[in-house]
User: Which sequence fits this backbone?
């Protein structure tokens, strides 16, 4: 079946520009996560959705970062006034809900590589 | 918040040898410990996990151990093969309300020489 799909796979932008990154989770997965991965580092948590609402956005580094999931499926990560330090791979993951909650397993997409010049 | 330390950052072994990767965590409330494998250009993929009510779990050539008292856990890969070469991440998370937000270590680059 289809996995988590992220677009674009690569995005090059200039400092100060606005960027949107899209995530299509696995169908039926109610939990959705955004992580950021810098070169040689582990994934760093940004935001977590249960359904349409952001259940935890404590990882967003500042107010230039925002994410939405209006219909509980596709999510968009939005970055305003991009800075060179925002360059990283942005990973999206989804997780299915079982009868007793979530298993804890995250299914990751291949990521969107953002380069800010 | 949770802090996960992972060692070594790079591990080079000969095919057929064993590989061990170690992690420590800081939050004693963490109760779920997954391990992910990431190949070049791909997203991380779960390979094995362990919950806090279990001390050891094995799946074919891979095993994980957990010491809750010491707050450390390890991944063991036996009879390594070249296709095991990848970056491995440990993670720790607290299950709250049935949901999990894992905190990841910095990763171990495993290189298996044929």
Assistant:
């Amino acid at each position: 079946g289809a996995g988590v799909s992220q677009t674009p796979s690569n995005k090059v932008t200039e400092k100060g520009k606005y960027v949107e990154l899209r995530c299509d989770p696995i169908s039926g997965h109610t939990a959705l996560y955004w992580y950021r991965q810098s070169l040689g580092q582990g994934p760093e948590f940004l935001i977590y959705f249960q359904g349409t609402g952001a259940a935890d956005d404590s990882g967003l580094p500042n107010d230039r970062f925002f994410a939405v999931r209006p219909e509980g499926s596709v999510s968009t990560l939005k970055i305003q006034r991009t800075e060179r330090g925002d360059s990283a791979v942005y990973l999206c993951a989804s997780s299915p809900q079982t009868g007793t909650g979530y298993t804890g397993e995250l299914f990751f997409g291949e990521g969107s590589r953002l380069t800010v010049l | 918040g949770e802090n996960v330390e992972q060692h070594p950052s790079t591990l080079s072994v000969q095919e057929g040898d064993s590989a061990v990767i170690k992690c420590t965590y800081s939050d004693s409330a963490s109760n779920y410990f997954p391990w992910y494998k990431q190949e070049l250009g791909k997203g991380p993929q779960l390979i094995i996990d362990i919950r806090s009510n279990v001390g050891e779990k094995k799946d074919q050539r891979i095993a994980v151990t957990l010491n809750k008292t010491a707050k450390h856990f390890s991944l063991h890969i036996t009879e390594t093969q070249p296709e095991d070469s990848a970056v491995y991440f440990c993670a720790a998370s607290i299950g709250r309300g049935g949901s999990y937000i894992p905190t990841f270590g910095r990763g171990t680059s495993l290189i298996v020489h044929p």
Q: What stands out?
A: Chain B touches chain A through 27 residues (CB under 8 Å). DSSP finds no helices and eleven strands in chain B. The two ends of chain B are 41 Å apart (CA to CA). The mean pLDDT of chain B is 95.
